[in-house]
Structure formats: C-alpha cells, structure tokens
Amino acid sequence: MSVQERKERERAERERLIVATARELAEQQGWDAVTTRRLAERIEYSQPVLYSHFRGKREIIGAVALEGAAELAAAVRAAAAGASGPRERVTALARAYLDFAARNPAVYDAMFQLDGGLTFAKEDTPEPLKDAFAALLESLGDVAGDGVHPGVFTELFWASLHGLATLTRAERLPPTYAEERTELLVARLAVL
Amino acid sequence: MSVQERKERERAERERLIVATARELAEQQGWDAVTTRRLAERIEYSQPVLYSHFRGKREIIGAVALEGAAELAAAVRAAAAGASGPRERVTALARAYLDFAARNPAVYDAMFQLDGGLTFAKEDTPEPLKDAFAALLESLGDVAGDGVHPGVFTELFWASLHGLATLTRAERLPPTYAEERTELLVARLAVL
DNA sequence: CTCGATTGTCTAGCGGTGCTAGCATCGATT
DNA sequence: AATCGATGCTAGCACCGCTAGACAATCGAG
C-alpha cells in the first residue's frame, strides 16, 4: 500500500501549499485579491482542484485562521514566559497580541473579521481556537481580581485588545499614543 | 425656477430612498445581499440611477455609516443625559453603545467593518464621525483619571466597547455574562 | 406652436467572481 | 498488456460592480 501512502502524502502537501499560498497572497495584496482563479494559477493547478480539498473559499479562509490561531497562541505564551512579574507578563502579552495583529493583518482578518465558517465558544470549536483563548487565560486568570470570574475577565481583556487591533489597523485610531493606550489598558484592567 | 427646485427636491428624496433602502436590505439580509441589482429593483429604478447619486457601492455604504454615526451620537448623549452620577453615566453610555451595535448590526458594520471610503481621525473626517467621538469624549473625559489624556482614554474605552460589540455579534463571545463584562469594563477602566 | 437641445432613464453588455458538470487522460491493478 | 477507476482539465453557469450608448421626455428659443 505504499503507492496509496505516497498519494496521500502528496495530497496533504498540496493542501498545505494551497493554504500557504492563500495566506501569502492575502498578506501581499489583501483578501480581495485572493480569488479562486489567482490562487489556482499560483499553485499551478486548475480551479476545481481547490474544491477537491476544500468545500469553498470560506474553508480556505478558515484553514488560514486555524494556522494563525496556533501561531498567536505560541506568540502569547512565548511573550508571557519571558517576563518576570505579573505586570510585565500582562504587558508583554498585550504587546505580543497587538504585534501579531499588526504583522499578520490578513491572518488576523481570517480569524476575526472574515467568515471562515468557524464556530467559537462552543463545544465543536476547533482545538487551535480554544487553545489560543487558553493561552490568554493562563496569564490573565491570575490578575482578574477577587470575585471576578477569570474566564469573563479574559474575555473582556481579549475584547479590548481586539478593539485596539482592529481600529488601529483600519485607521480608525491614530498610531500616535498607541503605546499609551496599551499601557493604560494593562494598568487599569489588570489587578496587579 | 420652481421647476428646478422641485427637481432638486425629488432628487434629494430619491437619494434618501436609496440610502434607506440599502440600510433596510442590509439589516434584513446582510450586506452581501445588498447588490446594485437588488437595490435598484427595490427602489424601482434601474442600476445606472444609483451611479448618478453615488460613485459606487462604497459610497452608499459610507452614506449609511454617516447616518448611523449621527444616531449613535444621539443615543450616547441621551443615555448620558438621563443618568445621575458619574458611574451611572458611564454605565449608561456603555450600555447604549453596545445596544446600538446589537440592534443595528448592519449599520454598525457599515461604520466600522466595511469599507465605506471614509477617513477617520484626520482633518477631512466627516462631521458626524467626529461628533460621535465627541459624544463619547463628553462623558468619558471626566473619568479618565489624573494625568491621563482624556482623548487617549476615550480612544481606549471606545476600542474596548468596539471589541465587545464585534466579538459578541460575530459569536466569538458567548452572550452569557455579557452584562458582567460591561460592568467590569466600567468599574476597571473609569476612575470614579 | 414647433423644433432643436438638453436632461434623464433604460437596455445591453463588459470583465470579473465563486463554483460545478462532464470529459479526457493518466497510471495502478489484474 | 489491457482495463478501469481516480484525477485534473476545459468550459460554462449565474451572479457581481460598473458603464457605454440608445432612447424618450422635457425644456427653451424662435
């Protein structure tokens, strides 16, 4: 059955190629430029091949989103691990989150702005998404304060970061004082 | 010149009809369903008529966004005016903001998620947008705390509200504990 | 009142989108 | 070596935003 195994490997490899190419194209020229025709051309296959891997464009976006969620979780954990006290840890976490959003705008869009057909905060939520939230919870749960549910606190902190990330990138917030806003967020929300 | 005046009135009236119909259609079936063909059919004119009023679909979205900004400003001011102390005022403001976003999802999207070709936080920012931010600033400036720039504080508070609004509506945050998150936000961010 | 000009609206169509039916070719199996 | 199923292709559907050009209605001048 070695032939079949090789085929499966090649198929999996091509699937990774599709996702990587979609991501690359989105980061270079925005998601609007990611059409099935262009994507097919870049991977040097015809359009229908995409549909033998994914149900449609939505699912491709969803795949990029899952990839991003894993990276975001790793970035957040790495930042938190390299900090000394609670305050430094939360600050590092916030910066890492906002930095990820700024450096990977297309991936961040795939996760939170576009419809990738993913379900959140449910039982059937994909593992990487749950894990990304868990990464935030690990560091933020400790600074929720007395009598405050750690999960609820993390949700609020996350929402604030998300608001800053999206409004900044959409040029709804001026880049000036971006650092002040981050520090103020940490100082006020977290109980240190 | 009464004839010309009548024509101008009719033209302005039709422009309002276009914006109102786009908004209605978007709230009913989402912005994806707002195509130039469907919109034209609903106002009982042909597609090109739309282009004699707006440069394109973007501008129609922008018009809905401006309408929404004016309403949001009014809603925020009304809520703030009806509250007694500082704490009640900020709580009422937050609730009014989130309530507006929840009740007018399509309009909120037009303002902050979609590209309506509007510029923010610049000199040539349309008046309704500046005024909506001003409405927030009026109530939030007082609770920024010592040594904190009221504008920067308002930007942060706004971003947090925006994050809660978008993540909740996109079902990224569970509806449970929505009220707790709001109260926690007010209690922590505002200096009362 | 008639007639040309202007204004306004429509029909038809362009190039693009996501997606799919059906055919042809290639390659593993017998 | 012949067969036959898997695989990727060409071609095309219905829809999108947008626009050129034909046509009709209205206006102003003689």
UniProtKB/TrEMBL annotation, chains A, B:
Residue ranges of DNA binding? 35-54
Transcription regulation recorded as keyword: yes
| The species this protein was found in | Streptacidiphilus jiangxiensis
- Keyword Repeat tagged: no
Identify the InterPro entries for this entry: Homeodomain-like_sf (IPR009057), HTH-type_TetR-like_transc_reg (IPR050109), HTH_TetR (IPR001647), MT1864/Rv1816-like_C (IPR025996), Tet_transcr_reg_TetR-rel_C_sf (IPR036271)
Q: Which GO terms describe its molecular function?
A: DNA-binding transcription factor activity; transcription cis-regulatory region binding
- Domain HTH tetR-type stretches: 12-72
Q: Which Pfam families match?
A: TetR_C_33, TetR_N
Organism classification: Bacteria, Bacillati, Actinomycetota, Actinomycetes, Kitasatosporales
> Which positions, given as ranges, span the membrane?
none
Query: Which keywords fit this entry according to its UniProt record?
Result: DNA-binding, Transcription, Transcription regulation
* Coiled-coil intervals, chain numbering: none
Q: Which domain of life is it from?
A: Bacteria
Identify this protein by name: DNA-binding transcriptional regulator, AcrR family
